[in-house]
Design a protein that fits this description.
homodimer; two-stranded antiparallel sheet; 16 helices
């Protein structure tokens, strides 16, 4: 009972809105000016166009969950933990935006609309969209390293920079994208769980896992905390993807802001094809329960601000 | 007189061939296996396809030029300086290969041949070539950080990782590529020196400058040595590009391995359009003289192995 009351008292919407505002401000700051002007304009077009910001919010929430018990809090007691992970959160959002730009290109998904706006290549042309994506990949690493607080240990920052490369590269996001491409349109439509799991562990899972693990590593949390957050990242990443696949079948076009049924039409390897709608819902309930236990057993949320718990539930119960 | 004799005794070809062999071995090792298999095959196709390896050779030569006087040599006397910069040299070659893959794509230069072989997208398709390029960008950072020797100071490695992002990103290589695209085909054909300089400082210059500066920073050379090598990198990068532009006008198709006259046909912003052929040759002579002084004044080569001097001359006097 107590748990429920506490959750009700916590104003999750106000929390999200405040943290998002801080992030948007930093993103705009990190991407201000720059030349060649048109390249920066193309990069800003995709990064500063809103979106849920789930990855960045997870990073901020994870930082709050391990603060003030971490190394950095002891080394620099006046430092604000949200401020300290902003370069990391911004880098993650840049990588995410970059992946959408390249995914939308004619040689991949050939999408004209993204979040209700024309896709990057529709506005800036294919060549510029390609280069804006390349630019964002490198800008993400640059911002992470150049803008991180001087109190952060170089060895921790190196670990995180390495983790970002791995989560994004051939064994992570890019690899998942290739697998998705290989299986999409596969006429027989028989996907086993291992295949779908392996696609999504790379394509969306690796970066979401990183978004929760990295702030803990950066601020110098204990190894146990880092690992618990990494596991929570796997759970949220998987739950997020199953929900995405469900919404494509059960969602409403107006609420979604995109046309449902695209996965089916393009014969994507989705969780629905493995489990069916009911099976996917059951799987989601299991993921939610595992996430809840993990958070409570590892005291990752404090009682008055169940931030990670709320984000877990949000990933599953969202309508778009 | 002495200078000439020493240079003649030094077997530059044997040197190049030995260092290239070490590099090729490491590249193959760093890129062995991996899945999804087709993605790794596509990445290997472009990275392990030979080429001059100028950037990696410059990195190795710069490391040799500051050894054994640097911090790392004192901290770990048994460490081999060539071995120590191999992850860096490999990362630079991966970035270079990635830039060629994306440059060759239909939406950019639309080239079918590279080094006498079909381009990446001709073999693997556009989508895979796009993703192989993205994968290589991240693999480069991963190899640099994960494979670097544990004796290298984390703060130095971080500086180098940051330098790599900057040399490659929107203010470096990617930015130069955008500028090149903006000016190519410009019908009036009036390019001033500042425009051409700014294109090439980004497109090829930034990575070549980095290739010379980074090993010095990584191994802990003095700030003066780092700066001298960075300047030498600017000189070699510029000389290399002017020579490239010259060869496109005066070169022979068989020796070049590609069709000359492409720059003129596609109205590229080249040094020849700024200076003319004779002017470009004069400019090259000036660059060579400045490079020679810089090397000798800063004792960057030892007498018996004028490696950097030979690489400077090679960048200018090559026939392909």
């Amino acid at each position: 009972m107590l748990e429920t009351n506490v959750t009700e008292r916590f104003d999750f919407d106000a929390y999200l809105s405040h943290r998002r505002k801080l992030l948007e401000h930093k993103l705009a700051l990190y991407m201000d000016g720059g030349e060649p002007e048109v390249l920066w304009e193309a990069m800003r077009y995709s990064v500063l166009s809103g979106g849920k910001r789930l990855r960045a919010l997870l990073t901020i929430a994870a930082a709050e969950s391990i603060y003030p018990g971490c190394e950095l809090a002891k080394a620099a007691p006046d430092l604000d933990c949200i401020e300290a992970v902003m370069p990391l959160a911004a880098a993650i959002e840049m990588i995410h935006a970059m992946s959408l730009i390249h995914d939308d290109l004619p040689c991949l998904d050939n999408d004209d609309l993204r979040r209700g706006k024309p896709t990057n290549h529709k506005v800036f042309g294919e060549a510029m969209a390609l280069l804006a994506g390349d630019g964002l990949l490198m800008l993400a690493s640059e911002v992470l390293i150049a803008k991180s607080d001087k109190h952060i240990k170089p060895a921790n920052l190196l670990d995180v920079a390495l983790g970002l490369s791995r989560a994004t590269g051939p064994s992570g996001m890019v690899g998942g994208q290739v697998k998705d491409m290989q299986f999409t349109g596969s006429a027989e439509g028989n996907f086993d769980m291992a295949t779908v799991e392996s696609i999504h562990a790379g394509k969306t899972g690796a970066l979401i896992r990183f978004a929760l693990w990295a702030p803990a590593r950066l601020l110098g949390a204990s190894e146990k905390q880092c690992q618990s957050l990494a596991r929570l990242g796997e759970i949220i990443g998987l739950a997020f993807q199953i929900t995405d696949d469900l919404l494509d079948v059960t969602g409403d076009a107006t609420t979604l802001g995109k046309t449902p049924g695209k996965d089916e039409a393009s014969q994507k390897a989705t969780w629905i094809r493995v489990f069916g709608v009911d099976g996917a819902r059951k799987k989601l309930a299991l993921m939610e329960a595992e996430g809840e236990s993990l958070i409570s057993e590892n005291s990752l949320d404090n009682g008055s601000a169940p931030v990670l718990l709320s984000l877990l539930k949000y990933s599953i119960n969202r309508e778009k």
